Amino acid sequence: MSQLKQLMFTDSKLGIDLGLLILRLTLGLTLLYGHGAGKLAVIFSGQEIQFMDPIGIGATSSFFMAAFAEGICAILLVVGLFSRFSSLVLAVNFLVILFFHAFIAKDGFEILELRYLYLLPFIALTFMGPGRFALDRILFRTKG
Length: 144
Hints:
The chain contains six helices and no strands.
């Protein structure tokens, strides 16, 4: 019990690293399952791409960028590889999504809430890094 107490109620580096691992796994797997896997499946199956063009680069380019962020970067975040880059790409992705829904579609809070709930942790992970339970730490000998 004393180890759990120390982990939960002190400024434990292990507690921070476990928290970052849980955050990465939850965000990455949820995003991959809910959005990224479907987009990657469309690409690999050769289906016709129908997507919005929120930044004026064409629907196909926008779709590929979203698939990269929500599929590839989500996977990288889960395993902790190129974590800061991946979380930055995901933060930019969700900034675009949030901007589109807030200012172009003029959606209400019910729609915007989930976008905020993805965006802010990705920004936090960009600054904090993946923690010690990540491939970045093993492969690149980083401390964060």
